[in-house]
Amino acid sequence: MTRRGFLKAAVGLSLGAAGCRATGRAAAARSTTIEAGRQDGKVNDLFRPGAVWLDTDGQLIQAHGGGVLFHEGVYYWFGENKDARTQPARGRIRRLDVVGVNCYSSTDLLRWKNEGLALPAVKDDPDSDLHPSGVVERPKVIYNERTARFVMWMHIDKADYGYARAGVAISTSPAGPYRYLGSVQPNGADSRDMTVYQDDDGRAYIFHASEWNKTMRITRLSEDYLEATDDSVREFVGRSREAPAVFKHEGRYTCISSGCSGWAPNAAEYAVSEAAMGPWTVMGNPCVGTPGQVATTFQAQSTFVLPVQDRPGAYIFMADRWKPEDLGDSRYVWLPLEIDGDSLRIRWLDEWDLSVFD
Ligand code: GAL
Fold this sequence. Notes:
Helices cover about 5% and strands about 40% of the residues. The chain is mostly beta strands. The chain has a five-stranded mixed sheet. Strands 1-2-5-6 form a four-stranded antiparallel sheet, with no helix packed on it.
């Protein structure tokens, strides 16, 4: 992206944020928030990090901890549907019942159509990994050319985060419905925050926080992407990183991650590598701005890096601005990445569009 592009984008005030209030109650109660966030039909003409973001039905987008798949001209955004009541913290962690994994589709990355629950919670089976009493977080979907199947990986857990597994589901169409296949602790390793990275040679990997989040593991998936293989490495040893987001630009791999502080934001860190399985070199914090912005990743936590189609070198940093007292009212922070060799920068913009990459 050119400097001129960034300057052009760094204009105006953030709309919507002022109009949003946490209600502490789910769906119905948030409708006032949604009305307040409707900005004369202008809501979806620009990216407005941290502001209310409505789908094409005028409803708050529910796709937290998510990722985006591009398939046959359409972007599919998968994420946690958190449209449920946030329960007071038991121990350290506030939680809500699992609703399921939502899917939205778009061709311009701004206007998102709700495709519904791609993987709903299983309410009638308390033993199911997808029972509302559990945890389904950070879903990511990739497409397997060989099997012509869409494969979703996600963090599966119990309310106390002691189950610590990676779950997998499969579908014949991008928006689902997905059929849940089960969960694993890859090679016996606990697995919490995670992402999936699909390389251009067809190999795919899960990056999963392990060893009680102290160390990240990178585990290659089988050719059909349905199983974790024993080809696995430990990286970022003892650095306590989570929320990994991985991309490749001009043959160099980059992983952006957060520290471990639950729903509270912390400083991002990025690392680079010549290969998906490392060795990875930690580079530092990619955020540029005020000390507060840099220390909190603009009050957000990484979830994915989205390559913009037909714009080589254009990548969007996707992050969640969690609202712990009402998690379903959490916001999205999407910002353009500036890449210069191994150096990565993320700067705050109140509002912007894809012309920043011109
Ligand atoms: C965060 C993690 C989230 C969620 C949360 C629960 O650290 O990134 O996905 O698990 O903890 O407190």
